TrEMBL record, chains A, B, C, D, E, F:
GO biological process, one term: putrescine biosynthetic process from arginine, via agmatine
Stored CDD domains: Agmatinase-like_2 (cd11593)
Annotated binding of Mn(2+), by residue: 109, 132, 134, 136, 213, 215
Protein name in UniProt: Agmatinase
Annotated cofactor note: Binds 2 manganese ions per subunit.
Enzyme Commission code: 3.5.3.11
Amino acid sequence: MLQPNIETFIGCEASYSDSRIVLYGAPFDSTTSFRPGARFGPSAMRHESFGLETYSPYQDLDLTECAVFDSGDLELCFGNPEQALHDIESRAGKILRDGKIPLLLGGEHLVTLGAVRAAAKKYPNLHIIHFDAHADLRDHYLGAKLSHACVIRRCWDLLGDGRIHQFVIRSGEQEEFQFAKAHTDFHPFDFEGLEHTISVLRKQNAPIYFTIDLDCLDPSVFPGTGTPEAGGVSFLQLLKALRMVCTANVVGADLNELAPSLDHSGVSTAAACKVLRELLIALDTKVK
Amino acid sequence: MLQPNIETFIGCEASYSDSRIVLYGAPFDSTTSFRPGARFGPSAMRHESFGLETYSPYQDLDLTECAVFDSGDLELCFGNPEQALHDIESRAGKILRDGKIPLLLGGEHLVTLGAVRAAAKKYPNLHIIHFDAHADLRDHYLGAKLSHACVIRRCWDLLGDGRIHQFVIRSGEQEEFQFAKAHTDFHPFDFEGLEHTISVLRKQNAPIYFTIDLDCLDPSVFPGTGTPEAGGVSFLQLLKALRMVCTANVVGADLNELAPSLDHSGVSTAAACKVLRELLIALDTKVK
Amino acid sequence: MLQPNIETFIGCEASYSDSRIVLYGAPFDSTTSFRPGARFGPSAMRHESFGLETYSPYQDLDLTECAVFDSGDLELCFGNPEQALHDIESRAGKILRDGKIPLLLGGEHLVTLGAVRAAAKKYPNLHIIHFDAHADLRDHYLGAKLSHACVIRRCWDLLGDGRIHQFVIRSGEQEEFQFAKAHTDFHPFDFEGLEHTISVLRKQNAPIYFTIDLDCLDPSVFPGTGTPEAGGVSFLQLLKALRMVCTANVVGADLNELAPSLDHSGVSTAAACKVLRELLIALDTKVK
Amino acid sequence: MLQPNIETFIGCEASYSDSRIVLYGAPFDSTTSFRPGARFGPSAMRHESFGLETYSPYQDLDLTECAVFDSGDLELCFGNPEQALHDIESRAGKILRDGKIPLLLGGEHLVTLGAVRAAAKKYPNLHIIHFDAHADLRDHYLGAKLSHACVIRRCWDLLGDGRIHQFVIRSGEQEEFQFAKAHTDFHPFDFEGLEHTISVLRKQNAPIYFTIDLDCLDPSVFPGTGTPEAGGVSFLQLLKALRMVCTANVVGADLNELAPSLDHSGVSTAAACKVLRELLIALDTKVK
Amino acid sequence: MLQPNIETFIGCEASYSDSRIVLYGAPFDSTTSFRPGARFGPSAMRHESFGLETYSPYQDLDLTECAVFDSGDLELCFGNPEQALHDIESRAGKILRDGKIPLLLGGEHLVTLGAVRAAAKKYPNLHIIHFDAHADLRDHYLGAKLSHACVIRRCWDLLGDGRIHQFVIRSGEQEEFQFAKAHTDFHPFDFEGLEHTISVLRKQNAPIYFTIDLDCLDPSVFPGTGTPEAGGVSFLQLLKALRMVCTANVVGADLNELAPSLDHSGVSTAAACKVLRELLIALDTKVK
Amino acid sequence: MLQPNIETFIGCEASYSDSRIVLYGAPFDSTTSFRPGARFGPSAMRHESFGLETYSPYQDLDLTECAVFDSGDLELCFGNPEQALHDIESRAGKILRDGKIPLLLGGEHLVTLGAVRAAAKKYPNLHIIHFDAHADLRDHYLGAKLSHACVIRRCWDLLGDGRIHQFVIRSGEQEEFQFAKAHTDFHPFDFEGLEHTISVLRKQNAPIYFTIDLDCLDPSVFPGTGTPEAGGVSFLQLLKALRMVCTANVVGADLNELAPSLDHSGVSTAAACKVLRELLIALDTKVK
């Protein structure tokens, strides 16, 4: 009997009930102000992952030994950010209620807000670890409160001072940098201070939502993104940093802003796949 | 004294007060459901027009002898279709009140709704001539009423039966084709019937809003668009048809759905520029 | 309970047992002599089909009302054509034994041989209708008997004179054209003679394997293929021809030679998807 | 004993002394005003020709039976048009003196002037058949007399009224079209009148220089060119027209304006190769 | 009253009279010997700069607080280097006479010669700081004295020994490297020695023309250039170096050799925009 | 007398008999499992090398002073790996018998096996230095023993334990890493240990076959390859390492896995050309 065509991220073949981590995609980029295309990120990662090995020589572990379920992409309404966030929050909420870690594949960075709303409902003392080239701290963007450029500001509305820890930020308006200095744990340009932040959060066993905007990587490594910002971190620096974060109590996570059609060489999608593999292995190692 | 850098569509150098036609761009594509990028259409047309001649051998007239003003692009809020439509309606309204023809460069096709609202306010008996590969007659798309896939349906909400004349349609849901047969003057696949439609409208001196979705062209001629549909009309067929439409009383118009980055050869942008040149000359010849 | 991510060609959602037509992909292009990439054809068609409507305005029918099952892609061994052909023959054989029509998505054209072997086993009086830019009639290519350039010659080895009907051929060696004139029902350049051929085959109720190399289309319509040959047929000519073929007794079919990465505009994949939709609807209409 | 790597256009392997036609490339595009890249045309044609069959089903003849020598590309000085033209004239002159037909591969269209100077020296009563989208009749371009936009005007300086026969022209300044109507045998848009022109020239046995700007082709067929102009002729129309021209007394020829890097699909280079094959066979058939 | 469409580099909105720095573009690449396209550099930078923030976190300053006027692009004659240099010299001369810093956007590197001629006229004791992958010290290139490959040699003709300070050079002919060792202050491969050079020039308050060929950057960071040379400096190294140079008495500057169409990802243009922002802020900080 | 068009890698113009090193290309990629295209590597390197200087500032030597002959590409049968390996072995054998160093340009990495077979025949105590992102140590791949993923395993079949020295490996199956630890001199991630390995081999004067899979480079430097793996070495690290290897007794070498069409910027081909220039100079310096 022939089977229908199932397409998951490589090595993510646990059943939902057996899984500890659940992938879900949010193919949404309606508020992207410069170059759209992040909507195609999750499916490209799934599709190109067949060129990836499941084994990580960095962690000497194999993704096939982790318990990951890939629930596919949400069907989101372009042009209606509030509805899209509602659908994301609902999916993340279900996964959290079932005691699993939701791992969101964006899409533009605004999608993070849906997942953070769900996580903050379950964990009112939630912290956010934020890797990004951009501060994303504008109060509004051309009048819109729900924009990729405002997403961390909206998270701050929910969580308040001292809960958001930002790294590798190297672009934004002057006001955003001033806001960051006043209200977030702010580390521009690189990962300096990450080790200290994580050791503090580990002591508190604080629940952490971990959001990675892939444009934290240098554009030489990751050109396929809407707003590439020269001067980012290297792939190996990111791997090291994410493994460090995963030693703490991560309760939800996301990878955002791969826009695959902006990089015809395929290098960006391949790098994103590898970051996801390393993140899944590191998260699963911690929770299993 | 050095002058700042002014960039207009080639040959459109009348002052606003002297002009009979006014260009304005709507770089918006938030509701595009498949491949975005139409936001870059208007600036690409302006930018690449310097490779175009202003003289039309088809009409034996020169664009520099027409009275066209290029007012640049609106700054629209991505992710908020209602606000964007409001801003477009407002710009179109001003141009109409000043007795000129507004010519909108999209952007995705939804932008047409803003301009049609303004035109229908001034001309309650407005007709629409619609060239497109897609019927755009859905009542809603994933719950959204304001979507590129619904734009002509929203125009029908305003104008009712018998006012919308559709040509070259070759893609849509079964329900859209059924709706079209019941409620619009529907001509699938090609321009058959256009001559008759125009002769009737000329007799009535009916005010016409003329909306051209460039994907009415065959993808061989115009690959740079979000949803290319094989089986369209040729460039020369489109030129002939638009000159025919411009013999009637056109009070507003638009060109939509050029997504320049989907066609690295530049052929699509060059074709769109030429369609605009021919449209401007044909419109201006009629009104001057 | 969340479901895993199933990806099929749009509208092909029958169960295997209910289906009348079964899709299967052969992502193989090892023998391609010029530009490879057809291996990515089947997955690109599935992936991009979500931009397609299921309704055909040409046939006024909807793909969702057909009974098609998509069994996904075979996992084929690159560099070993004989093994790949064996796996294809085995899949086609099972579908034929279950009384369904196998519809193969290539891949390079050599994959047809596997399906033809299976069909000829069940139907010894099999005929082949062949649409292609290339004659594919070489006896060997650089010493290899199993090459995309030899596939119809290998079919002739199986079926003999008078069984192969070739259309739109416009490229080949002088010897291939001479062979064709002697041994096949040969119609270079276009579809002239197709109506007559089909009417003869209908009278005989001859079982037909229908193989479409998409490079029969003009490169303006379908640039994304390994060896584009100027001077081909239009999209509408192909649609008309394939509907004509489907009035006869087609027992197996394939679509080949989409190399999606050779056409960044996506136009070729979109055209291939539409050809597949029209072919499925036409086949299903005949058999249901 | 191993041989060094020789690269010629496919099937052009006669020795210089045996040859009747001699290819030479002019990789020059310094005066291109819009998008450069035609400098890479000749080497791309040589390089990609290995994907072409030597047999022409249109003429039922094989290029390997013609006597063509490929002398490779001239090494031209960018930024110095007069020097480049001198080098081209010198190469063309030698080939003409040796009693062979020089066939020049451009490069931008200005290169034609070098070859025409050499031909006009040998044949003072030279005529020019000119296929092009552009009139190329400007007297100067931003002050330069030697520009691709002026090349036919410079030829007219040499040859005067009644000697230049222009076809398929569909772009230019108003002045150029007026000049053409007064001074050349002018056929805008298509090949109408070609048959008559050729029959007159055949009666006179007039020596003809035949210059083909490949942008006479529609951009759907040939997007890879600096200034694509919608509304051109089809590939089959061009083949028919060039075979007609080759029944007259062609003493020199060129193919220009392929800019291969503007068309990543490779379709334009493949089409150019096929035009060259057909041109070589038609020319050789006449002279052998 | 609607305004015409003004397009400047982002944040450069001072009036000419108020400005301290004046941008002007030289879209010229006629002498480029390998891959042309730098002509599109200045307009691409202007056009894509709307994706850039005006705030520099590196210098904690905002471009909107600087006094920069963007005078647009010169209209230069392709194929005539001497005329183009004359026009550039004339524009640079006017800006210098008005007591402002001219900042030239190339274009190929030859354009620097026009600006240097103007600067050397005003400042006979001019020094040049030159960042580049290539020595550009050939005496002639295929017979041409005015070529991108000779531009620094031509500057040396004007200024003589000891005035030219070259950094990051990693490509050239053996003779160029020997010439450099004898006649320029030569620092191959990286910025070693820059600090010392600048401190000496500061002590002398020497007037400096600062020319940056963006291919000094590693191609991983800046692939969009005609002749990419592996082994270059990083973006952060370049930022640090240019800020160091701007502490001295820079009287004119340029950024060259962005060829945007060679990098479809847009990363190169984005990097060039950021280098320009940082350069403008650093220059303005020094002079205001 | 005009000469035919000879195309060699720049500066490789010795006669075969005078040469010490002989280039030969193997344009083969039939077993590539992910993205093919390496077949175009050798011709792209030859073709693009005209943009390269022959002088190496790193070694202060000029390629024109080395004695290199370029014998062009083998004509290999796609789809038949064993035949292709036989043809490669035969060419390498002849060059070795003539006392020269064969330098193979791939193609996919499987081609190395042909050259290693020839070298092991002449030098039974052959060692292999292997730079690569991938271990290439699978015993079979989807049933095939002759696959790019198995090539070093096949070499191990020939040579046994202790003869293969692997560097920069960062991708593979868990089993491959375990095999490597047991059977090869294994250095994952970077060049650590290379100096020691080379000093041991130099003491033994061991004959070395040196195989460089260019994907050892970081994808930021070299995106144009079938399976890019983030986290590789830099260009300067590779240059330093290859010069170190060339101080030992290298008897044969290859450069593999450039897939030029995957990198439209041309940066990968340019980098590969430079690696080849540096390798040729370093090899020739040792042997002359």
